[in-house]
Amino acid sequence: MSLSLPVVKPSDITPYPNGWYVVAFSHQLRPGDVQPLKAFGRELVLFRDTDGVVHMADGHCPHFGAHLGHGGRVEGNCIRCPFHGWQFAAESGECVHIPNGDRPPKLARLRKWDVTEKCNMVLVWYHDRGAAPTWEVDQLPEFDEPGWSDWSTDEWVVKAKLQDLAENDADVAHSPAMHSLTNELPRASEPEIDGAIFSWNLKITPSLQQFGLPASLKVPSGVAISVTTRRYGLAFAWIRATLPLVSSLRYRAQTIACTLPIDEDSVYLRLAHRTRRTPFRPFTKQMLKFYHQQFHQTVDEDIPVWENKIYLDRPAASRSDAGVLRFRKWARQFYSNPVPEKRASGS
Q: What's the pLDDT tens digit per position in 62-109?
């Protein structure tokens, strides 16, 4: 008796969705710095010219293939190849100087990428068909408010697709099943969708001990953590959390969550956290430490699932999965070959 196996078709979800990606934080790249970068299955070079402008280009020199990120250097507003010293203009990518006096060949040009710098982040535009940017990342709400702690960062390399990480925030049903932050199903608002921006609010009944607060401190009935997530495309999210405590005291925190695909099988996940300063510096430091630890624990709990799950175009979804299905419908715009409506909706 032969066993008939179902035919499994590859998903239309590709490893590199179109959109803006955070490739570095601004303080990591000083004028004159040159850094190699691997992303989107390619070798790249990231550098800041002497005017302070950040650039990204394909990493290998078109002359004889040396990697500009390994030994290359900034000279004026050019990047110099470490192999033969050819110089390429930062703005155009065109070769403008060869040390032996030869005339630069027409093919001697670096492929430049669209780069913008905003809110202390360096963002790069990716489109699998080479299209120019069709939307921008706006100023993050409350980002420039004074009175916040320094940033605390965390990072992982995860063997997963970016889509699985991106839709995790919209999957409220998995939180009480997997994580210790709450024992109750979070209450989610209807999402606000504005083109490439997807925003929603969560109300979470917390376990205060997960935030490093004493067990004797009780949360008044009905009080919950308010979490606002504002996602710009699939690779970047701005998360703000507020928890009323006693009197006028509120616990406030902010998180930058950014994901960068390294290749078809792995992504680089980076988080940056800060908390609102209190009059007591040790208390602020302690709150940030525990907030960071809570996020780290949550990601560590999610990673085994991300690395071993498959993406189902037609999941057997239940009522509480409505948020994920709405998110998937919105996410189709970031793929050049989008998932058909009937498949993404779970019907």
A: 999 999 999 999 999 999 999 999 999 999 999 999 999 999 999 999
CATH value at residue 329: 3.90.380.10
What CA dihedral angle connects 323, 155, 261 and 326, to 10 degrees? Answer: 0
Split into its structural domains, the chain has a count of 2
- Transcribe 197-262 into DSSP letters: EEEEEEEE---GGGGT--TT-PPPTT--EEEEEEEETTTEEEEEEEEE-STT-EEEEEEEEEEEE-
Closest listed residue to residue 212, CA positions, set 295, 291, 299: 291
CA distance 190 to 225: 17
> What's the pLDDT tens digit per position in 295-335?
899 999 999 999 999 999 889 988 888 889 999 999 999 99
| pLDDT for residue 346 is more than 70 | no
Half-sphere CA count of 293, side-chain side, radius 13 A: 11
CA distances in angstroms from 51 to 30, 54, 69, 90, 95, listed in the order given: 11, 9, 19, 11, 19
The parent domain of residue 51 ranges over 29-113
For the CA atoms of 25, 252, 143, 297, what is the dihedral angle to 10 degrees?
Answer: 20
